[in-house]
């Protein structure tokens, strides 16, 4: 399997990363090298193996529906200066 | 000319009324101070670990069972990836290929028939935060993450809905069921019930699925119906002129009553789902599912049947009264103390619902309780007040919460059943309107109504109408 140049551009767009022409070419090669490397795994016969959705031997972990104290306002905004009137401020969206 | 039918599927999001959020222990509350119900988990701080709220799972199973779904023995959570500032993790925890519930249905009754709307799936996910866009030319938006992580169920139908009216009926039924289950308050205006629609047209008699259009931003059941009606017209026009339908998302504008293009298929999102490694898969036993089934309350359809059987109500009355659990409870409280269910039904359906709608109130907000209504009905039975006066008493009780007896006393609304006093008035009315009396004698039956009306007018509605009738007939 090989990724097309368009797929590289689409992945970049989804990740909100602007790529220059050189970078597209470089990443295109790197992606395909990597995919080729991982494709070795296709040689393993998995006919009798159940699909894996989770790696640890755990199931049914949940918690009771009980309140804990939420963060105090000064803790909420501890890591940012971009807040106003109890809101986080972000670059205008609409 | 080709006749077309609509092919409609609905996607409903319901915010669940759990005590805490889906994956952290922050309070799940509407209307709190911005960012006051947040913690490192729902703020997406690195290194935090979400843990499933057991109530989310239980509410999901309850809803699935009430919608006749199969409950999956295995399900898991996936990450739905997209960038938007209301989603600090940059992914939404949702369920993709293994949802909690599959293959259900909901029957809705149109004027013509019962239509079975199949449910494709019900799955669990979390809500995003709320964005407030800066006023005027402000170069920023404001983010409130109280809603981020609030538990949601997404309920998706098969494309089985054929008319905008069916869509509205489906939503009304679904809302009633969810409210009966007590898992959500389903307030569209507060966003605890939201609906998107997919719609295409096809020639009647075919079973093809044509290019569909998605409609978003509908803020009421009425808006859903209107938006679908408009979209049918728009697509019909395109087919008629031979233009092709482009797969797209359109947004509803309630003010203009129209939809406009939001995005086309080329711009469609690519969410790159993958299994969430933080949340542990769920294996459900039949015992757990059955124990939840046993705890299900009586649902609207069953209650409607019972109201018809036990109280002898017409299907229409039973349908209206059971459309909300609160209203049905209200009605049942009344009839537990009063012998005539149909009379109660008339007052509750007509006057009570009218006043609630006029004042935009919920049953639980009403000061007029079942005991108020029962007392008023008893006063009518005793002849203390007439039916006409009862309406006034009812409105006054609704406005003030005062008991019927007190309203009657304070407002001087006692029915006049004093025969000699009424006879005097009748005599006066007869001599004041000899021409009407003449009309009546000539066979104009309506003339009697006018004379009764005159007496009622003089007594401001307080005269006993049967007695007035009798006295008039004796003297004409």
Question: Any overview of this molecule?
Answer:
- The complex is a heterodimer of chains A (about 90) and B (about 475).
- Chain A has helices at about 5-15, 20-40, 75, and strands spanning about 60-65, 85, 85-90.
- Chain A has about 90 residues and is of the alpha+beta class.
- Chain A has a two-stranded antiparallel sheet.
- Chain B has 3 domains: about 5-290, no CATH class; about 300-410, no CATH class; about 420-475, Orthogonal Bundle (Arc Repressor Mutant, subunit A), CATH 1.10.10.410.
- Chain B has helices at about 55-65, 165-180, 220-240, 285-295, 300-310, 315-320, 325-335, 340-360, 370-380, 385-400, 405-410, 420-430, 435-440, 445-460, 465-475; strands at about 5-15, 50-55, 70, 75, 80, 90-95, 100-110, 115-125, 130-135, 140-145, 150-155, 195-205, 215-220, 250-255, 260-265, 275, 280-285.
- In chain B, helix 12 packs across helix 15 (about 465-475) and helix 14 (about 445-460) crosses helix 15 (about 465-475).
- The radius of gyration of chain B is 29 Å and the shape is elongated.
- The termini of chain B are far apart.
- The interface between A and B is large, with 34 and 49 residues.
- Strand 3 of chain A pairs antiparallel with strand 10 of chain B.
Short description:
The complex is a heterodimer of chains A (94) and B (476). Chain A is α+β, with helices and mostly antiparallel strands and 94 residues long.
Largest sheet of chain A: 2 strands, antiparallel
Please estimate the helix content of chain B: 25-40%
What is the N-to-C succession of helices and strands of chain A? HHEHEE
Could you say which overall geometry of chain B the principal axes of the C-alpha atoms support?
elongated
Query: Kindly state the mean pLDDT of chain A as a whole number?
Result: 90
Number of helices of chain B: 15
What proportion of the residues of chain A form beta strands (DSSP E)? 5-15%
CATH architecture descriptor text of the domain at 5-43 in chain A: Orthogonal Bundle
Low-confidence stretches of chain A: none
* Quantity of strands of chain B, as a count: 17
Flag low-confidence runs of chain B. none
* Average pLDDT level of chain B: 89
Query: How far is the first residue's CA from the last residue's CA of chain B?
Result: 66 Å
**Number of helical regions of chain A:** 3
Number of separate strands of chain A: 3
Strand order of the largest sheet of chain A: 2-3
């Amino acid at each position: 399997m090989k990724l097309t140049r368009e797929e590289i551009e689409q992945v970049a767009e989804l990740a909100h990363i602007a790529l220059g022409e050189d970078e597209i070419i470089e990443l295109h090669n790197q992606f395909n090298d990597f995919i080729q490397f991982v494709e070795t795994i296709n040689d393993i016969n998995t006919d009798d193996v159940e699909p894996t959705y989770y790696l640890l031997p755990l199931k049914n972990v949940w918690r009771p529906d009980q309140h804990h104290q939420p963060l105090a306002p000064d803790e909420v905004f501890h890591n940012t200066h971009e807040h106003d009137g109890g809101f986080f401020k972000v670059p205008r969206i609409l | 000319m080709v006749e077309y039918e609509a092919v409609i599927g609905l996607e409903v999001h319901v915010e669940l009324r759990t005590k805490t959020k889906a994956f952290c222990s922050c309070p799940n509350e509407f209307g709190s101070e911005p960012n006051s119900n947040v913690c490192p988990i729902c703020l997406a701080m690195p290194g935090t670990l979400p843990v499933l709220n057991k109530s989310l799972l239980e509410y999901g199973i309850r809803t699935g069972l009430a919608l006749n779904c199969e409950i999956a023995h295995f399900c898991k959570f996936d990450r739905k990836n997209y960038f938007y500032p209301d989603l600090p993790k940059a992914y939404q925890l949702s369920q993709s290929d293994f949802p909690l519930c599959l293959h259900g249905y909901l029957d809705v009754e149109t004027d013509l028939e019962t239509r079975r709307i199949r449910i494709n799936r019900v799955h669990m996910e979390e809500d995003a935060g709320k964005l407030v866009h800066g006023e005027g030319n402000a170069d920023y938006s404001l983010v409130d993450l109280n809603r981020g992580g609030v538990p949601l169920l997404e309920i998706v139908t098969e494309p089985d809905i054929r008319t905008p009216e069916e869509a509205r009926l489906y939503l009304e039924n679904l809302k009633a069921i969810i409210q009966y289950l007590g898992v959500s308050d389903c307030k569209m205006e507060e966003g605890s019930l939201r609906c998107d629609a997919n719609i295409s047209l096809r020639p009647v008699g075919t079973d093809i699925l044509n290019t569909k259009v998605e409609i978003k931003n509908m803020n009421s059941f009425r808006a859903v119906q209107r938006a679908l009606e408009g979209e049918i017209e728009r697509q019909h026009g395109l087919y008629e002129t031979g233009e092709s339908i482009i797969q797209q998302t359109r947004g509803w504008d309630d003010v203009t009553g129209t939809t406009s293009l939001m995005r086309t298929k080329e711009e469609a999102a690519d969410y790159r789902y993958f299994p969430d490694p933080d949340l542990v898969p769920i294996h459900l036993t039949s015992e757990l599912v059955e124990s939840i089934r046993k705890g299900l309350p009586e649902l609207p359809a069953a209650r409607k049947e019972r109201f018809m059987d036990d109280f002898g109500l017409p299907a229409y009355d039973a349908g209206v009264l059971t459309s909300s659990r609160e209203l049905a409870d209200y009605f049942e409280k009344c009839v537990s103390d009063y012998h005539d269910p149909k009379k109660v039904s008339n007052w509750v359906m007509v006057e009570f619902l009218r006043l609630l709608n006029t004042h935009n109130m919920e049953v639980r907000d009403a000061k007029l309780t079942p005991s108020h209504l029962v007392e008023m009905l008893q006063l009518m039975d005793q002849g203390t007040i007439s039916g006409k006066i009862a309406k006034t008493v009812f409105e006054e009780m609704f406005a003030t919460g005062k008991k019927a007896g007190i309203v009657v006393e304070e407002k001087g609304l006692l029915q006049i059943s004093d025969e000699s006093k009424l006879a005097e008035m009748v005599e006066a009315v007869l001599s004041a309107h000899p021409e009407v009396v003449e009309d009546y004698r000539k066979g104009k039956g309506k003339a009697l109504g006018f004379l009764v009306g005159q007496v009622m007018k003089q007594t401001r509605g307080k005269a006993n109408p049967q007695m007035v009738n009798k006295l008039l007939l004796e003297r004409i």
